Give the backbone structure.
Amino acid sequence: MDTSAEFKNDQLLIIKKIGNKYPVSVIILAVVIWVHSVCYNEMKDRFINENYLQQIFEGIVVILAFSGATFTDSWLGKFNAHIGSIILVILTQITLIIKEILIKEFYISWIFDAFGLLFLSLALSIQISCEYCLAGDQFQIYQVKERRKVFSSLYLSTAFGIFFVDIYTHMIWESKWFSRNYSILFNGILLGIMSLTLVVMLWSKKYFFIEHPKGSTLLEIFKCILFAMKNKLIHCSWKTPRRDHWLDWASEQYSEDTIKAVKLFFRLLLFILPFPIFWSLVSKQEEKWDYQAIHMSHILHQNQIADENVEGMFSAVILALLFLMEIVLFPFLEQLGLSFTLIKKMVIGMLLIYISSIAALLLELKIQNSPGIKPNSRQSFLKILNVADITFDVILHKNNSHHTTPIFMDSDYPDYDIINLDAHEEYFQLDVSSSTWFKKEEILLEEKTIYILILSGKESSYSITLMKEDNEVVENGLAHVRIFNNLDKDIYVILLLDTFRLRKNTGYSPLLTIRINRKVNLFYMIEEKKDVLQVGLLKFGGSYLIFIIQDVPIVKIHKVKMVEIKTFSIAWQFPQLLIMDIGRYFLTVACMEFFYYEAPKGLKVTMTALWTSSLYSTFLIRNFVSYISLLPEWIEYFLISCILLSVIIAFFIISYYYKETYRENL
């Protein structure tokens, strides 16, 4: 045993432990990671509210993960890097508070958003890889079970932090009393908590085993590669004896251990190769699940449940199940003598994720074949769609009645509210109000009919439009489009065979049947100015409302896809979500443990960061998958499942020929 290994064992023996197994440092680290996860995810929701920002964020994380991890392995060290990630989160919170208090101008606010996004992405790219490697360093090499349990605990701590943010902060931000001043106060509280976390980490430094870096191992690997290539070219004569591997040509200058580390580095790079595509497909699958849930009935036990409540319920059950698996199932399997290698655990996790994609495909076929929810006799459905520049409170009540019905509004996928009638048709009083505007209007609702109530306009000129929803079946390869004018001037939509005039504020076109395409363009004219109206992607069999909301300096639209709600209950999504999360748990924990063991000395954070950055590489295939949106929904699920299976087969072949070196070390 070398001197450094002996010194590490001596230090690990004297650090404070609980039950002579688990160091106090890993308990502190688990709590810090939970707080870090809560603050990080809350700020991520604040900064990333558009799809293009999500793609920018993912790209920055992928770029910074490798460079930050290399710097950590070479000079900074794992503990100092983790401290740095906490400081970056604190800087992000300070940036957010300054922007909300002082910044009024749009361009300066945008600069603060850019800095906040940069700090946040840098914090994430450092944090994930460092925290697992730092926790792994607190155990001796033979403490395999203890290290696995700690890695699982860190995963569950992060998952619980995300669950906490999704449930409780959503409730806080949605509450009416949470004004701008309270928003600043809430961010100040988070800033104080993260500052306290920083103090706790610095104070508890004495409880950690800290392995100091010894220069750039990655640089030595690159030098070894260059020397081997150069030496092989020099001795390329047929008279020169061949060597088993091209890296063996570096043996004149580099030791056998260094050459082995270089070979292991290349094997790990090949091992990581399928993961970017794999996680991109999983991310696309999760997006499809969200869209699938919109089509399903949210009525459970005759009660309509909001989307956030359904998501919270699923997350709570899955989190509880993962805790039970860790506490009950895994110890029980160990008692039976059942154990799996880390690579087998990865394959099991991937197969579970694939099974969940198959379950999603079967569920989509069931949804397509199930009837849509229709209003019964003495009943109508009402969808409220707000495309104005402010938010409204909408209350509906029958004439000469004090009973009121508050209406839920969604600007992207409007849900329906069930309105009970006392006759075949009935008049209702509609109260629409905001902080600066109020209007009463009487509307007539008929039984067995679905209505769309559109709130539109700008500043003080707001208007209310009630129209019946389109129930016509869309033919294959086509989409239905209705264009709505939200401007204070008339618009003419010019088609090949006809021209439609849309009156200002409330005018809308008849139902247009358009062939689907990735880029759909229509011609329009505003005050003798002709131009192209870029509608964008129209999906297979879709029905859309297109709102023209701005014409200066350029025309802007708001596109809403009308969704038919099926009778299939959203509870049927739970099995596939459960299988997905269990598979993700198996795969993530096994990969973190695998790269900690397998990575060459001085490259543990770097190799772990290369794997974790694949989690944020979903932008790699976003442009590709947008083309399959021109196909029916079930074909999209089928294609994703097939590509996912091919990636899993490729990973299985790579892992089958991979020789695990950590078992030799153990």
Q: What stands out?
A: The chain has a mean pLDDT of 78.
